[in-house]
UniProtKB/TrEMBL annotation:
TPR repeats lie at residues 499-532, 533-566, 601-634, 703-736. InterPro entries: O-mannosyl-transferase_TMTC, TMTC_DUF1736, TPR-like_helical_dom_sf, TPR_rpt. It comes from Setophaga kirtlandii. It is a multi-pass membrane protein. It holds the Pfam family TPR_16. Keywords: Endoplasmic reticulum, Membrane, Repeat, TPR repeat, Transferase, Transmembrane, Transmembrane helix. This is dolichyl-phosphate-mannose--protein mannosyltransferase.
Length: 758
């Protein structure tokens, strides 16, 4: 019972509710499906949802995981916890022009906890949490669907009744095994969607608790309404879509608690009918509860706006080309086509891709484009469902269809481009929540078919087949998300026109050292998108390493021409110009890179190398010092400072720099080696020997380490040890410069000593 029988102020509410509940048909009556006790139903859903994604538990960090986790300083203990509230999801300041304004501090906090408990970037723990979250959400879906499909009623003891156990189990299974959820579960960055969904559902269930019978005799609990608002705020702090639960709670209140007939209400509002108060709109509590939800939502959005700032996120045309179209018609047509693609992914989740941007979906620019059919089909179905939801005489049908459409459409609104530009074309992760609405509509459609079908078992077997196919598809897709190579290659057949897909395949190959294959994919990425500056930059880098300098210069010059503030391309162009011995142009390119990226230690390092080549030693040392100030662990810059000071005879300064470097990077064997050389020349043989041995222990196969230690022993007079390390050095590298000559000198000296001794 939702309302207290003894409440004298509202004697008509509970009987009215009960009568309507009795008049409504039971959805389960027509559904040919398994009937399980609630506990077992939840166990089955949990087990099957686990089986779908279990093989992703030991996957790598892939795609966006690198930026959101590995390169995100907010995960590290040295970053104050307070910074999480002023940074975006990727660790950038919200006030920065480059920020995507994705404000998800609670999700980042869970990443940080994962990192601290694991003691580093070990992906297993991150993946396990994601799988557990999806299983938990799927279990909660049993309760949510039982309310959405069967209505909200409580027993005399205050226990909520499940009036649609078979339908809620089927809908929860459909949700648990939907392949479109793979990105959220198998991709660690999908944690944002999972946490958002968890608190989204808890907010809804909390709102339902507001109507549970209480001892004070109130018809609803303000406390639980406020709890629902707080849980909605937490959902939004996990991902932006979470705020939409407040609107859905209001819709649920109007349709299920107050049984409002929307069409009748609209008619009475239009004709100013005096019986408006009998529609349920003005019943005690509804307007107050909606006001609480609206005030809570407005307050949450205001606080977020104050933290985030007023500046819109910076997206480029390749991220969302339709939003940059000049024509309102082109924008509207393409937005609607994107909606139809999202609907198709829910209906037939076979073609899945990690990224749908960069030409994957060419713009529709004319009504003669055959893809207009998809728009027509989408709106034909939506209008049909909306008409049934508004006009049907069956109140049960109206309620389920309206709730299904509400859960399908409202959580999708933040990704719809209607209120602000989003940074993607289609994203599977954003339909995690809207799939709730799809599962409601599917289950209701199945019940209608079951009612009409003569052979209900065949229909049930068909649905079981769909579930099984989805389980297998989830397992296959999860395996593709285990590594970047599999993930990127899986997209080639789905989005062959997507330049980013070819770019990512090329980058993955380049990281593995397969430069020849990487060049092929980078060239294809540039062909598909002639303005793809990142592909040009990476291709230019590989060509530079292969000494194809002129083509590398052409590509990098074009990249900075297209994007003048592309600091990395300017630096790489400087490296190529330096190799072509065009030193003035190289210096200018380096300084341009630094102008566009103030904190650019690698560029200062390369600038120092240029100055060293020009014998501008002071400038070189200053450039390398800047690199180490910006990045104290920049080993190459420290090493070059030590070597330059050593070569110019400044041994005391070289020693001081070497000791400073080793304090900051105590386990760097190359720094040990460089400082050991300086100490040897300063005749600090004992300390030099200790550093050489420590460097060799860290890197025993470095021929130069053994060779220089042999020289130290040679000078020191430890000839037997010198002979031993010369031989090790020559064994590791028979062509080591100077080592053979020194070894021959030592052998002659040892022979002379033997003759004298004889």
């Amino acid at each position: 019972q939702i309302f207290n029988q003894h409440n004298a102020e509202a004697p008509n509410l509970e009987p009215a509710f009960q009568r309507m509940a009795q008049m409504e048909p039971n959805l389960d009556h027509d559904v040919s499906w398994f009937l399980l006790p609630s506990y077992w139903a939840k166990m089955v859903v949990a087990l099957i949802s686990f089986l779908c994604f279990a093989n992703s538990y030991d996957g790598d960090f892939v795609f966006d995981d690198s930026e959101a986790i590995i390169n995100n300083k907010d995960l590290r203990a040295e970053t104050p916890l307070g910074d999480l509230w002023y940074h975006d999801f990727w660790g950038s300041k919200l006030s920065s022009n480059t920020s995507h304004k994705s404000y998800r501090p609670l999700t980042v906090l869970t990443f940080r906890i994962n990192y601290l408990f694991a003691g580093g970037f070990y992906p297993v723990g991150f993946h396990v949490i994601n799988i557990i979250l999806h299983c938990t959400i799927s279990v909660l879906m049993v309760d949510v669907f039982s309310i959405l499909l069967g209505g909200l009623q409580f027993s005399n003891k205050g226990r909520r009744l499940n009036l649609a156990p078979k339908s809620s189990l089927l809908a929860a299974l459909l949700f648990a095994v939907h392949p479109v959820h793979t990105e959220c579960v198998a991709g660690i960055v999908g944690r944002a969607d999972l946490l958002c969904a968890l608190f989204f559902l808890l907010s809804f269930l909390g709102y339902c608790k507001a109507f549970k019978e209480n001892k004070e005799g109130h018809t609803f609990s303000v406390f639980w309404v406020l709890v629902s608002v707080v849980l909605g705020a937490i959902a939004m702090l996990c991902k932006e879509q979470g705020i939409t639960i407040l609107g859905l709670n209001a819709v649920f209140d109007a349709l299920v608690i107050n049984k409002i007939n929307l069409l009748e209400l609209i008619r009475k509002l239009l004709y100013k009918d005096k019986s408006l108060e009998n529609t349920g709109l003005l019943r005690k509590g509804l307007l107050f509860r909606v006001a609480l939800l609206m005030c809570g939502g407005a307050g949450i959005l205001y606080i977020r706006w104050r933290i985030m700032g007023t500046g819109p996120p910076a997206f480029t045309e390749v991220d969302n080309p339709a939003s940059f179209a000049d024509s309102l018609f082109v924008r509207a047509i393409n937005y609607n086509y994107y909606y139809s693609l999202n609907a198709w992914l829910l209906l037939c989740p076979w073609w899945l891709c990690f990224d749908w941007s960069m030409g994957c979906i060419p713009l529709i620019k004319s009504v003669s484009d055959w893809r207009i059919i998809a728009l027509a089909a989408l709106w034909f179905c939506l209008i049909g469902l909306i008409c049934q939801a508004l006009c049907s005489e069956d109140s049960h049908k109206r309620r389920i269809l309206t709730l299904g459409l509400g859960f399908l459409i409202i959580p999708f609104l933040p990704a719809s481009n209607l209120f602000f530009r989003v940074g993607f074309v289609v994203a599977e992760r954003v339909i995690y929540l809207p799939s709730i609405g799809y599962c409601i509509l599917f289950t209701y459609g199945f019940s209608l078919l079951s009612k009409q079908a003569k052979k209900k078992k065949i229909l049930a077997v068909a649905v079981l087949g769909i579930l099984l196919i989805n389980v297998l598809r989830c397992a296959l897709r999860s395996s593709q998300w285990r590594s970047e190579e599999q993930l990127f290659r899986s997209a080639l057949s789905v989005c062959p026109l997507n330049a980013k897909v070819h770019y990512n395949v090329g980058k993955n190959l380049a990281d593995k050292g397969n430069q020849s294959a990487a060049i092929k994919y980078y060239r294809e990425a540039v062909r598909l998108n002639p303005k793809y500056v990142h592909a040009m930059n990476n291709l230019g880098n590989i060509l530079k390493e292969r000494n194809e300098l002129h083509e590398a210069e052409e590509l990098l010059s074009l990249a900075v021409q297209i994007q003048p503030d592309f600091a990395a391309a300017w630096m790489n162009l400087g490296i190529v110009q330096n190799s072509l011995r065009r030193f003035e142009e190289a210096e200018q390119s380096y300084w341009t890179a630094i102008k566009h990226r103030k904190k650019y230690p690698d560029c200062y390092y390369n600038l120092g190398r240029l100055y060293a080549d020009l014998n501008r030693h002071i400038d070189a040392l200053n450039a390398w010092r800047n690199a180490t100030v910006l990045k104290p662990e920049h080993s190459l810059a420290w090493n070059n400072m030590i070597i330059l000071l050593d070569n110019t005879g400044n041994l005391a300064q070289a020693e001081a720099v070497g000791r400073e470097a080793l304090e900051l990077i105590p386990n760097d064997h190359s720094l040990m080696f460089s400082l050991a050389n300086v100490l040897g020349k300063s005749q600090k043989y004992k300390e030099s020997e200790a550093l050489f041995l420590k460097a060799i222990k860290a890197n025993p196969n470095a021929a130069s380490y053994h060779g220089n230690l042999a020289v130290l022993y040679h000078r020191w007079g430890n000839l037997d040890l010198a002979k031993k390390h010369y031989e090790v050095s020559l064994k590791l590298d028979p062509m080591a410069p100077g080592t053979k000559e020194n070894y021959n000198l030592l052998r002659r000296k040892l022979e002379q000593l033997q003759k004298k001794g004889g």
